[in-house]
Amino acid sequence: MIALLTPGTILLAQKTTIAVLDFEGRGISQTEVAALTDRLRNELFRLEVFQVVERGMMETILTEQDFQLTGCTSNECLVEVGQLLGAQMMVGGSISRVGDMYTASARIVNVETSQVIMVADYDLEGKINDMLTIGMRALAIRLGGDEKAPPPT
Q1: Can you tell me whether residue 95 is helix, strand or coil?
Q2: What is the total count of domains within the chain?
Q3: How far is residue 129's CA from residue 102's CA, in Å, rounded to a whole number?
Q4: pLDDT, tens digit, for every residue of 6-18?
Q5: Nearest Cα to 103, choosing from 70, 139, 73, 133?
């Protein structure tokens, strides 16, 4: 059997598979939380560091396994979901609003070891759309290992 390896397939083979659970929302609507979490997934994909499990694929697999995500915020739950999805790493977190300040907090959990391997926070004073367009990109960059993510503009 002959396998053809192109630079793209070699790069893909080296990427860590990561899945992002919908964040917990505090002081913002579930629709806003879903939009922000989707944007974070996209921004993690754009980093070209991770192979990101798509939301639709996650929902299909978890529905087939009859797994309920409601209240799934603990590291143990993230690990269980990651095992079902075949992900190496899981991202969980929260997005909160206090006055005009928004804060996003995220953690990456290694599915095999159950250990938190990265935490990142991003604070933004302004509007929710700024958190969508600026904050989620900055949070993704920080989760990708760059602590000097761009400040808000």
Answers
A1: strand
A2: 1
A3: 11
A4: 444 444 457 899 9
A5: 139
**CA 68, CA 112: separation in Å to the nearest integer?**
21
Residue 150 burial by Cβ neighbours in a 10 Å radius (0-12, 13-18, 19+) = exposed
Contact partners, residue 151, CB within 8 Å, separation at least 6: 138
Per the domain annotation, does 152 fall within a domain?
Answer: no
Instruction: Look up the CATH number of the domain holding residue 118.
Output: 3.40.50.10610
* Neighbouring-strand partners of residue 25: 95
> Which residues constitute the domain of residue 37?
9-143
Domain membership of residue 119 (yes or no) is: yes
Q: Which residues pair with 16 in a beta bridge?
A: 50
Count CA within 13 A, CB hemisphere, residue 84: 20
Q: For residue 74, what are its two tokens?
A: 């603990």
Phi, psi of 54 (to 5 degrees): -70, 150
Q: Tell me, what's the pLDDT at 148? A: 58
pLDDT in tens, 101-150: 999 999 999 999 999 999 999 999 999 999 999 999 999 999 998 765 55
pLDDT at 69 over 80: no
Name which of 120, 95, 96, 116 is nearest 106 in CA terms.
120
Torsions phi, psi for 15 (to 5 deg): -80, 145
